[in-house]
Amino acid sequence: MAAFGTVFMPQMSLAEFKDAHWTYHNMVSSDRIELHPGAHVLHYSSTCFEGLKAFKHADGSVHIFRMDQNIARMQQSSRLLALPEVDSALLEQMIIDAVGSFTEQVPSPPGSMYIRPTHIGTEPAIGKAASPTQQSLLYVLLSPVGDYFSGGIKPLKLLIEENGSRCAAHMGMIKSGGNYASALGPILAARQQHKADQVLFCPGGDVQETGAANFLLIDDNQIITKDLDSSFLHGITRDSILTLARDLGMTVSERALSVDELIERAAKPNTEAALSGTAAVLTPVGSLIHNNKTITVGSGEGGPVTEKLRKALNAIQWGEAEDTHGWLTRVN
Ligand SMILES: *Cc1c(COP(=O)(O)O)cnc(C)c1O
């Protein structure tokens, strides 16, 4: 199977904002867009994106998971970046048109169709370093993806980073390429120097998230994860897992978690830790590197609670369990 996100459907839906209004061009070829070299996004990073998935059920029907939440987050990201306001009805139509054009190509579970709405500032104006773009492109790319865990589930090793941060604190809740660019240097250094898989950003000792996933600590019947603030990305998988955990009778503690508390709890044999995100749902964390020492989390293997929660979410996505929260939108 090709690497995640390298195969694209040949068409995407595309809309253009110009002269203060949106024009929807419907489906266009997905292999290129035309951009002026002075486009605002190329100089001043006026860009945000989303990531969500469509799933194929056993009867052949195709369902998009929590589309309303991704649309709301894209509107929020666009607003916070002073990009043109995204019309939620337009974006919903664009996502449904794109997925609806390729229902046959949606892989069956454990695969899915990854959906990547993208919004970029296109006004050719390099003098607008401190003012918003008046033109933009919004498009919805599709990429069929296979089993994220096809090579087996390997618990991750995270480097605890207390000094650096993933991105500027006021940008954390924006899903934007700039934040990824900002996190890349520390992630590459952690791989090189510590053979870590990811960096767990903990500015000032406050456990936040990794470069592209939220962090959950599971201690017996309790899940502890940072409460929402503007410094980190409000994952929809995070919210879904916390909802399912409450349904299962677990205690959900959304509150500050310090590195000290994390390390103390990690030593207990039943503790589990996991990263949440659309790509993998929940990936177990096996160890933490702190001050050049490796700390094993619980057994060091993926634990039963992590697996139970991942399976509960997958079961809804795959149409094997009742969608009691109304998270799925049927396309065909
Ligand atoms: C997208 C993203 C997540 C995960 O969000 P989901 O909605 O669960 O996919 C977490 N952290 C960052 C920085 C992200 O960009």
From TrEMBL:
GO BP, sorted A to Z: isoleucine biosynthetic process; L-leucine biosynthetic process; L-valine biosynthetic process
Swiss-Prot/TrEMBL catalytic activity: L-leucine + 2-oxoglutarate = 4-methyl-2-oxopentanoate + L-glutamate; L-isoleucine + 2-oxoglutarate = (S)-3-methyl-2-oxopentanoate + L-glutamate; L-valine + 2-oxoglutarate = 3-methyl-2-oxobutanoate + L-glutamate
GO molecular function: branched-chain-amino-acid transaminase activity
UniProt keyword Cell membrane, yes or no: no
The organism's place on the tree of life at top rank: Bacteria
N6-(pyridoxal phosphate)lysine: modified positions: K175
InterPro entries membership: Aminotrans_IV (IPR001544), Aminotransferase-like (IPR036038), B_amino_transII (IPR005786), BCAT-like_C (IPR043132), BCAT-like_N (IPR043131), BCAT_family (IPR033939)
EC number of the protein: 2.6.1.42
Keyword vocabulary terms for this entry: Aminotransferase, Pyridoxal phosphate, Transferase
NCBIfam families hit by this protein: ilvE_II, PRK13357.1
Record PANTHER family: AMINO ACID AMINOTRANSFERASE, BRANCHED-CHAIN-AMINO-ACID AMINOTRANSFERASE 3, CHLOROPLASTIC-RELATED
Name listed for the protein in its UniProt record: Branched-chain-amino-acid aminotransferase
Native source species: Idiomarina aquatica
